[in-house]
Amino acid sequence: MTLAHVAHQALRGEEVRVFHAVSPAVPETATERVKDHAARYGWELTILNAGEFADPNYLKNPVNRCYFCKSNLYDRIREATDDTVASGANLDDLGDYRPGLLAAKERSVVHPFIEAQFSKEDIRALARKFGLNDISALPAQPCMASRIETGITVDPRDLKLVEDLEQSILAYSPGITVRCRIVAGGVRLELSEGPQIDKELRDELVKLARRKCGQFGKTLLGVAPYRRGSAFLHDA
After folding, report:
1. Taking a C-beta distance cutoff of 8 angstroms, is the pair 27, 11 a contact?
2. What's this model's pTM, rounded to 2 decimal places?
3. What is the pLDDT of residues 121-136, one digit of tens each?
């Protein structure tokens, strides 16, 4: 979203189109945020379905699932425009396993923030400079399919549980980092560690999570400290 604002500032009078994909893996709050900015700032916004849920390679949830997700996304965008396609990838993304970047390279997608040597913190600072306080402080939010352990089929109902549980916990205790992980046998809840989560709060969050999991026919297996990328890690 910061890149979209930069593009509109830099290309005054020239055509800029913003594409946003909706699917079971994209939180409704994210879509509403994009729509709000488009209305406020006069963006030409195209909302599309990238179609990854019709791709069996994506649904199998291999370790390179993101490659198939981004392949579908960029192919749908390319069907809608012949213009240069730019993504908001940044330097920090180069330090992680990002198979989606290969899909982007194959389709000649450009990454202005990487070319400008911008990290996530640089982008946050840029957003603040533009007065975009509602997005400058947003926590990292990978797509919800990243919550499903590698090898477990991507199921829209599981993604709905992820969204509902994470949003419920954040509404109860704003500011913490939470991940609802779909793993073999049930659900593992991951919470950031720190003084803001005492035993009483932790117990309340576990009760909330257990109720929500039960509504979806899932078992809460336990609570663990938040770990980046743990959807790729298999417990022994």
Report:
1. no
2. 0.89
3. 999 999 999 999 989 9
